[in-house]
User: What shape does this take?
Amino acid sequence: MPQEDLDQLKTALIADSFRHHYEKNAFYRRACIEKNVHPDQITHLADLTRIPLVPIAKFKSAASHELLSKPLSAIEHEMRSTARAASRASRVAVPTRSTPRSSPRTPRSANSSAFPMAPGCTSARRPKRFPRWE
Assistant: This one.
């Protein structure tokens, strides 16, 4: 794919995400209004630098709930990062699926392990180290 097409695709995807958060999140919309930026103004790659960034400290603050663009009831799970041991963990909320899975999960039997078994492993406990894949 030519670089120009890649740049247009990146711009479109980021502009779409920006529009979503602008429309669904009052905190972020206020920040954009203060910076005089509206989603309709993001049309070219160079425009992406105008999108306001949220400081990392905001994600780790007690008021981080203000950053949610979906209600808590729509969150399926939360991912955490402990990139810096001295600071609080970062969190990323992942929304629930709006469409059913294309391939449903195989139900576990009552005796199955909570962890997948590595090839050649006969223990029902999670192995400390998986055997080398060959």
Residues 1-53 form one domain. The first helix runs from residue 3 to 24. The helical segments are 3-24, 26-34, 56-60.
